[in-house]
Amino acid sequence: MTVIFGSIWCVYAFTVFSLIPMVAPGCQNTLLYISNAIQLIALPALAVGSAILARSSEARADADHAALVEILDDVRQELTELRSLTSGIAANQAQDATGGTTMNVSADTFIAVDNIAPDAPGQR
């Protein structure tokens, strides 16, 4: 019933219904009675529908919050692992500063720089 009363067609119907006394003023009392009956039925139905929608919305919000907290925990765990993996890089670079520097990724050498001289002018 909430969906019906929330539609634009219901607005159009009630607009036409409210304009009927202008065309037929003699039936104004009957239309007022019908209008009051509709209000007595519709208001509690809308209140119940609104409460049901609020409950489902709250349950959805709780589920979304739980999922986001789980994702945040995963990101924090991955960040901790990344920090532990990269903690020795600065120390290794400081030790290798006297000679060539080798950067290792896993067990494979990724970049090896051994005192490369800058390009002489005119050479590329």
Notes on the protein architecture:
- Helix content is 69%, strand content 9%.
- It has 124 residues and is mainly alpha-helical.
- It has one domain.
- A two-stranded antiparallel ribbon has the order 1-2.
Structure described in brief:
By secondary structure, the chain is mostly helical. The chain has helices spanning 2-5, 8-23, 28-86, 89-95, and strands spanning 101-105, 108-113.
Strand arrangement, largest sheet?
Answer: 1-2
Helicity level, as a percent range?
A: 55-70%
Principal-axes geometry comes out as rod-shaped
Radius of gyration: 37 Å
Strand content: 5-15%
- Mean pLDDT value: 77
Characterize the quaternary organization of these chains: single chain
Provide the number of structural domains.
1
Provide a count of the helices.
4
| Uncertain regions spanning at least 5 consecutive residues | none
Q: What is the H-and-E element order?
A: HHHHEE
Count of DSSP strands? 2
| Main sheet characteristics | 2 strands, antiparallel
| Structural class based on helices, strands and sheet pairing | mainly alpha
What's the N-to-C terminus distance?
A: 78 Å
Explain the layout of strands and helices.
Layout: H1 2-5, H2 8-23, H3 28-86, H4 89-95, E1 101-105, E2 108-113
Antiparallel strand pairs: 1-2
Question: What brief labels describe this structure?
Answer:
single chain; 124 residues; mainly alpha; two-stranded antiparallel sheet; 4 helices; transmembrane helix; transmembrane
